[in-house]
Structures are given as C-alpha cells and as structure tokens.
Amino acid sequence: MSPRKVPWSRASRVTRPVATAINGLLRCFQLAMVVLMLGVPTTGRAQPVPLATPSGPVQGALEDGVAVFRGLPYAQPPTGALRWRAPQLLLPWTEVRAAAAAQPACPQKRGLSLEGGGDPGRLDEDCLYLNVFAPPADASTKRPVMVWIHGGALIFGTGSLPLYDASALARRGAIVVTINYRLGPLGFFAHPALEAESPNGAVNFGLLDQIAALEWVRHNIAAFGGDAGNVTVFGQSAGAQSVLALMASPLAAGLFDRAIAQSPYGLPSHTRAKALATGVAIARNVGLSGLGATAAELRKVPAERLAALDGLALSLAPGFIVGDAAVPQPLLQAFQRGSEAAVPLVIGSNSNDASVALAFGIKPAALVTKLGGAKTLVRLLYPGVADDAELGRQVARDAIFTAFARRIAYLHVQRAPTWRYYFDHGRPSGAGHGTEVPYVMGTVASCQCLGAPASAADLAVEQRLGDRWVAFARTGQPDAVVPWPADDRGRGVVLEIGETDTPRPGFMRVRINTIITGLNLAAKTR
User: Fold this and answer.
1) Whole-model pTM?
2) Which stretch of DSSP H or E encloses residue 197?
3) Average pLDDT, stretch 45-65?
4) What are the start-end ranges of the E strands in 340-477?
C-alpha cells in the first residue's frame, strides 16, 4: 500500500522552495494538533480537537488521560465484488471522521466470542477497522507502537472487545493499535471458481488484512505521536499464530521490528488442495452446486450464512492455508529454513493451555488411549500423574503449546534475541488458554473474567507483565526488577510468571526434548 498525501497538500503544483515551506508548516500544524489532542491531562471522557492524519482528519475521545480513536478504517469494505480479494487501498477523506465509537466486528458465529473474551457486538462484512490508544504527547520523543492481533481460532473475535482495551499500556507510554481482520470462510477460503479468476491467487485474506493494517500504521501512526520505525506486533492464540505467520511472510517484511507470540500452537496449516475441497463443501452446504458454483454465486451468499457454518468438514480453523504469496510455506518450515524476519521475539505458553483442546477437537483421555503401548513410556515423563484425563491434558498442553514455543525459540535464536516464558498464575488447575491476556492489557480489574474480584497478587502480576511488554516494545529488552535471561540452544531457559517472576534454566528439558524428537520423527513418516 503506497503512502498518499492528505488532500490539501499540493506541493506538486508549486515550486520546490515554496513546497518545502508549505510542508514544513503542515508538519508544525500537525504536531500542534497532536499536542492539543494528546497533551492535555483530563479525567473522564471529553471530545478533543480533530487530528490530521495522512488518511484524513479524525476526532476521537479523551478517556482518563488517554486519547482513544475507535473505528478507523484501514482498507475499503471487503464486500460485493471485493469479497475474497486482497484488501484494497482506502482513499483519503476530507471531512472530519468521528472516531469515538467502535465499528462492527467481522462476521462470525454468534456465541463463540462471548465464551472466549466477550460480546463482539454488531457484525458486518464491512469490518476492516482498527482502534488507536495514545498517551499524552511528548514532542521530544516518538512513542513505541504495539499492534494487537486478537485470537479466536481465526473464526471469532474482534479488536474492540473491552478485554483488549489498551489504555493501561498507553499510560505506560506506548501507542497501541487493536485491529479487526476477516475470519472463517470470509477470511480463509479457496474454491475452483476463485482459482479460475486468479490462478494460485490469495487465499489467506485475513492475514492480508493484518498486513494492510500494518501498512496503515506505517503511513499514519506518526500523526498520533508513534514511531513508525519501532513497531511491535503481539497477539494471543490465533493472534500469536498470526504473529509467526507475519514473521514468515515475505509480504510483511519491514512492517514491524519486534514480535510477541502468546500461546501459539503447533498444529499444521492446510494445503491448498484441502482448502479447495473445503470450499467446494461449503458451496454445496449453502445450496450451490459445489464444484460448479460460480464466483458470482458465491459472492451473493449472505455473509451471516457463511459465518454460521459449523462442522469440521466446513472449517479450516485454526490454521492458515499454505500456497499463496502471504503463506508460501508452512510456518515451522520457514523457521527451520531461517527465512523468518530477524526481529527480537518473546514467545511462551500457559500452564493449562490445554483448556482449549476441546475447541481443537482433542479429547485428553482419548489422546492417551491412542498412545497405545507408548503410554507407559510417556508416563515416565510425567511422574505422579496417574489419571488418563490429566495425563492427556498435560501431554496435549506440552505437544501443542509448550514444546512448540521451545521449537520456535530454538530455531529463532539463530536469527535474533529470543525470550521464552511460562505463565502459571491463576487457578489451582493452572493458567488456562488466554488467561494471561487481561494481565498483559491491564484489564484484570474490569474484565470480570477471573471468577472473583482481582486480588493484590493479580494486580501485581498485571503490573509486572504490562511493564515487561512495554519495555520490550520500547527497547527490545523485556527487563524489569527480575532480569529475564534470553533463551538459548543449549539447556534453554524460561521466565516462569506466577506470583513472582522466576528464571527456570532447563525448564522441562527432558520432557520437551523427548516430545520434539517424537514430533520430528512423526513428521518424517508422513
């Protein structure tokens, strides 16, 4: 996406010296607007003066000292003829755009996001919007930028959930951007009719949306006081998987400078052939002729009908599709080849990430049964665990999450500094999948997601975790009072995050290495 000038900048029509003077005045005017917009301390909610951006003038709201701009479009609506096409450049606007209220979330099956983070609100195919949270302006420095990619198995969620309110991170001095991207069969889809339109064309439309949002950040974030040369992408679950996909994607090269992946999963992506077969099944399910459905017929299917589809045969969640320009190779393979972006990385998992196993179609006890005679050997890696369901839960956690974080870290340390964590604060059963999110975002007290009022220990963990994430975004080092040693290819080290932060050299070393060896052998026999 190439940068565009604001409509009132017409330097091409005047001589070079005059153009330089005009552009200088415009920059001064824009800085003045930033200072007026972001620099006035306030409590509650107030309406600030409009802010000029390269995309057009916007007017957000001041909320307890944080300037919040909600519902800013970053691409044209992906509707009608633009369904299942790469996001298209949004032309600048001239009228002041109100940006105090969130815009619709992308179509998704009702109820999933409510269970996994909150009510997404209104749904609409016109959903390519983002939100910006900015601290008071400091004319002497540019702020680090953090771009949040929500989770939800690539089929549900939105960047506008109250859980993801980034005001607390902004108060630490970061500019935070939360985004929507296309989901489910509207975001990740292939069909022979679309192949005929564009042979070997795009299929990971949701990932292309994320890239378009990063391009918007590069061109616009300076207007909010952010440093376009210091951008951190961070996300959880499918958002973390997206972070790794962005690191591996040639199309995202140069758009960010650091990365944080919270609970990415070691589940394989899909082949293009699998995606095509799924697309044919979807066409048949919505009343078209399957293989014979035309692109025009497919684009006329109501978005809500596509979003409501259910069943493994009609879904590619939670994986990407290998075989387009955005995802030219499997994610793990990209890291094995050393072709991923050489940016500092924080990666980790939770002590009960297997709480999401059922969503992946995995039944812990059945997993142990499938081990057959190997179950005896596996039990040796988990001393004291006798119950099959508990053994299966821990094996699923480690095979899908803990070992995957170690595999990625082991490979990436050759490219850039890498830190690994293990989040274990919360319930006696362990920290469930996504439990760390409110601690990162600073919404522990307001999310109503802990099952009890936030304790002093909860708030202390929240403070430490948010501090580390913003420190990493600012400097590339996630340091705090307790130093966090970088991971390495030898014994490996994690920071165990609980009521205290504790470095753990050799964390689960034998168990994780054994699992990784087994996964590597299984991959060779496929």
Assistant:
1) 0.90
2) helix 192-197
3) 89
4) 345-350, 418-423
